[in-house]
């Protein structure tokens, strides 16, 4: 008779802010709980790989998954979360090294404005694109990693065992990255990361060693996969939900609104087209006040117009290039 194999539920948080023109994610380097196994907090040269805040669900003590998550974030980073939505459940059999249980992790996306962090997890804010450098197309930021990635993926295609698999790999590579005439979809962040993982081009794909073929800062366990899922979700939502306003103060300039949208999209947006889109969608309303202390001509301050949630089915900020 096969012995029972327990399932443990973990909770993870991809907490995103935009500071200046940089999308940032909150990471921790210590986690003192049952899920912080050697693999979960795997070390690089001298330091652990950064992780998203995470911890186990307390079935008896946590009334909801979300409240359990908020508790772990509070303990590890000293941060109180506002906007939170469930992202995905990660449950691959080999994602954790615990031999006594199967670990399922329920990941959440949280949007905040960056603030000082504390807590027991040695938390810090990091650039999202340090983990996913091929995703930032502003000012050619992705050009160098993409050139190197393309050469490595060409080799990945070439070593496929037969013609049918070479053709399938070629199509997948072209569609994921928008090469050889394929249209590049900015939302395919997770698909691009998973392709690089399969091709062995990220450190998480080969534990215990690293090399020049690794792209981007690695993360503990499968947390970089979670981050890629979160960024893809955010990019998709820019078109049909006003999530960008969760990352802004109550009043803001249109320039600041555009900077936050560009940071998440990883692309520059056409200024006039963007402002026409925002105006036509009725997303903001002027306050009659001006920004002070800018050193130039003061720009008008706006607020998010909440009435748009009742008026429009998909009140998003599309990528107006």
Structural summary, described in words:
By secondary structure, the protein is an alpha+beta fold. The chain folds into 3 domains: 7-130, Nucleoside Triphosphate Pyrophosphohydrolase (Alpha-Beta Complex); 137-215, no CATH class; 239-311, Winged helix-like DNA-binding domain superfamily/Winged helix DNA-binding domain (Arc Repressor Mutant, subunit A, Orthogonal Bundle), CATH 1.10.10. The chain contains 9 helices and 8 strands. Strands 1, 2, 3, 4, 5 and 6 form a 6-stranded mixed sheet that branches. It starts with 6 loop residues before the first strand and ends in a 10-residue tail after the last helix. The mean pLDDT is 89.
Structure keywords:
Nucleoside Triphosphate Pyrophosphohydrolase; Arc Repressor Mutant, subunit A; single chain; 321 residues; 3 domains; 31% helix; 9 helices
Task: Give a short overview.
This protein has helices at residues 65-77, 128-131, 143-158, 163-177, 189-198, 223-237, 254-265, 271-281, 308-311, and strands at residues 7-19, 22-27, 54-56, 83-90, 102-111, 124-127, 284-290, 300-304.
pLDDT < 50 stretches = none
- Radius of gyration in whole Å, from Cα? 21 Å
Report the major sheet. 6 strands, mixed
Work out the helicity level. 25-40%
> What is the N-to-C succession of helices and strands?
EEEHEEEHHHHHHHEEH
From the N-terminal CA to the C-terminal CA, the straight-line distance is: 61 Å
Strand fraction? 15-25%
CATH architecture of the largest domain: Alpha-Beta Complex
SS element count, helices: 9
What is the C-level CATH assignment of the largest domain?
Alpha Beta
Structural class: alpha+beta
Mean pLDDT: 89
Domains counted in the coordinates: how many? 3
**What is the general shape?**
globular
Quick one: CATH superfamily of the largest domain?
Nucleoside Triphosphate Pyrophosphohydrolase
**CATH level-3 fold name of the largest domain:** Nucleoside Triphosphate Pyrophosphohydrolase
């Amino acid at each position: 008779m096969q012995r029972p194999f327990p399932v443990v539920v973990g909770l993870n948080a991809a907490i995103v802010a935009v500071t200046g023109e940089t999308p940032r994610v909150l990471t921790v380097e210590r986690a003192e709980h049952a899920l912080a196994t050697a693999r979960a907090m795997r070390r690089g040269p001298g330091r652990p790989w950064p992780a998203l805040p995470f911890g186990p669900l307390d079935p008896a003590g946590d009334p909801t998954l979300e409240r359990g998550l908020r508790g772990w974030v509070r303990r590890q980073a000293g941060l109180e979360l506002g906007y939170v939505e469930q992202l995905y459940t990660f449950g691959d059999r080999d994602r954790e090294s615990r031999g006594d249980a199967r670990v399922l992790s329920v990941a959440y996306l949280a949007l905040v404005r960056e603030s000082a962090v504390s807590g027991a997890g040695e938390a810090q804010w990091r650039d999202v694109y340090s983990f996913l450098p091929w995703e930032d197309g502003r000012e050619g930021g992705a050009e160098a990693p993409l050139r190197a990635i393309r050469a490595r993926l060409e080799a990945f295609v070439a070593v496929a065992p037969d013609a049918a698999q070479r053709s399938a790999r070629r199509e997948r590579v072209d569609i994921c990255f928008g090469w050889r005439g394929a249209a590049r979809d900015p939302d395919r962040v997770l698909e691009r990361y998973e392709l690089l993982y399969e091709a062995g081009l990220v450190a998480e794909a080969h534990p215990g060693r690293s090399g020049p073929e690794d792209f981007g800062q690695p993360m503990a366990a499968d947390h970089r996969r979670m981050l890629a899922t979160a960024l893809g979700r955010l990019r998709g939502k820019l078109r049909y939900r006003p999530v960008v306003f969760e990352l802004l103060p109550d009043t803001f300039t249109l320039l600041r609104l555009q900077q936050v949208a560009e940071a998440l999209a990883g692309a520059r947006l056409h200024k006039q087209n963007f402002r026409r889109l925002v105006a036509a969608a009725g997303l903001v309303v002027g306050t009659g006040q001006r920004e002070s202390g800018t050193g130039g001509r003061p720009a008008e301050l706006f607020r998010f117009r909440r009435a748009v949630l009742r008026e429009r089915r998909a009140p998003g900020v599309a990528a107006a290039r």
